[in-house]
Specification:
The chain is an alpha+beta fold. The chain has 11 helices and 9 strands. The mean pLDDT is about 95. The structure holds acetoacetyl-coenzyme A.
Length: about 375
């Protein structure tokens, strides 16, 4: 068993760390305040090869492993989870799905520009009445011969307005339930496709979350991913990898809040000592460090299983469940350690606390992760 990162992993970590500190950090408070999408920063992440990290170079990607992806997600998320969610969705839910299940034409046309970071993708599963209950799709894709006629609404879509390429799950044959769902590639600009207003969110406020409306959108049959009725399995399989990304995002949020807390505890004086001299603070930091290390090991293990081609659904859900709960607990404690300073924006921890919450909700709530885990346990 090998617990050390390779030289290559360490180099990737340093590159992501430098980028987070030098490029993401300076504007992160303002972007959060004004709900501003990190457009220039995402462009630069694309140039670094971080938007198609695991895609083969043949299709414009960087050909890295899932452990590298987890490392990059952690480092970026220590500073800016609004930027890292773009990295996660583009890599896991869009590029991975297209490379694994798309045909050659789809890879050339859609995957290439997404992997190179020239375009951004979105994954469209959630609906007003289909969040956790993802089989209950109301968006329809009626088979019209050589095209599908798509009607319906998608909710809370990350990269909703910024994306150019959308993978949309829609029901073609309701009598077949989830086996009647298709995954369709829809391009921005197709007639009848409109983007709703940006959501005003508690956290990850810089990310671009919108509802999407489809009214008689004609989608060529060539844009269907996989066989007829493969859409739900496509969504579930891509979400497995997505959960490694969000687990690593949660890990990064926790680690970012922890590092700020250690620094603050060493500097801040109270009762004639530094906070770090007080056992009440030492114990909090010890708990944070322990949980973060456990979360990191779960993230790396899930990524490693994926890299080995072994089943990783349960491991990814365990990582996401534990890391997101760790992010919530750690950031709350970080605000507590910072006291009054923790409650104002300049010290970053209040934002990390708000950002942590979404990691318990998107790509499956903590309850959904428990369903996935317990099904495996009880098999
Ligand atoms: N890979 C492939 N197929 C899978 C699968 C997987 N990981 N998991 C399930 N399936 C298949 C099953 O084999 C089954 O197929 P058959 O009937 O043909 O055998 C089919 O899918 C249905 O499976 P279940 O019976 O397990 O379905 P269920 O209704 O009980 O639901 C669930 C399972 C785990 C609750 C699922 O609905 C789920 O994960 N819900 C949460 C959805 C979610 O994560 N949404 C996130 C939105 S995306 C997002 O947040 C992105 C963002 O913006 C950041």
């Amino acid at each position: 068993m090998q617990f050390e990162l390779t030289e290559e992993h360490l180099m990737i970590r340093q590159a992501a760390r430098d980028f987070a500190q030098n490029v993401l950090k300076p504007g992160v408070i303002e972007r959060d305040e004004h709900q501003k999408f990190p457009a220039e920063e995402i462009k630069q992440l694309g140039e670094l090869g971080f938007l198609g990290m695991m895609v083969s170079p043949q299709y414009g990607g960087s050909g890295m492993d899932a452990i590298s992806y987890a490392i990059v997600m952690e480092e970026l998320s220590k500073v800016d989870a609004s930027a890292s969610v773009v990295v996660s969705v583009n890599n896991s839910l869009v590029c991975y799905g297209l490379e694994k299940y798309g045909n050659e034409e789809q890879k050339q046309k859609y995957l290439m520009p997404l992997a190179k970071g020239e375009k951004i993708g979105a994954f469209c599963l959630s609906e007003p009445e289909a969040g956790s209950d993802a089989t209950s799709q109301h968006t329809t894709a009626i088979d019209m011969g050589d095209y599908y006629l798509v009607n319906g609404t998608k909710n809370w879509i990350t990269n909703g307005n910024t994306a150019s390429t959308y993978i949309v799950m829609a029901q073609t044959d309701a009598t077949k339930k989830h086996r009647g769902i298709n995954a369709l590639i829809i391009e921005k600009g197709m007639d009848g496709f409109t983007v709703g207003p940006k959501e005003n969110k508690l956290g990850i406020r810089g990310s671009d979350t919108h509802s999407l409306m489809f009214t008689d959108v004609k989608v060529p049959k060539a844009n269907r991913i996989g066989e007829d009725g493969f859409g739900f399995k496509f969504a579930m399989a891509t979400l497995e990898g997505g959960r490694i990304g969000i687990a690593s995002q949660a890990l990064g949020i926790a680690a970012g809040a922890y590092e700020l807390s250690v620094q603050y505890a060493k500097e801040r004086k109270a009762f004639g000592k530094t906070l770090a001299d007080l056992q009440a603070i030492q114990f909090k930091l010890a708990d944070m460090a322990t949980e973060i290390e456990a979360a990191r090991l779960l993230c790396y293990r899930a990524a490693w299983l994926k890299d080995q081609g072994l089943p990783y659904a349960q491991a990814a859900s365990m990582a996401k469940l534990f890391a997101s709960e760790t992010a919530m607990r750690t950031t709350i404690e970080a605000v507590q350690i910072h006291g009054g300073y923790g409650f104002v924006k300049e010290y970053h921890v209040e934002r990390l606390m708000r950002d942590a919450k979404i990691t318990q909700i998107y790509e499956g709530t903590s309850e959904i992760q428990r369903i996935v885990i317990s099904r495996e346990v009880l098999k």
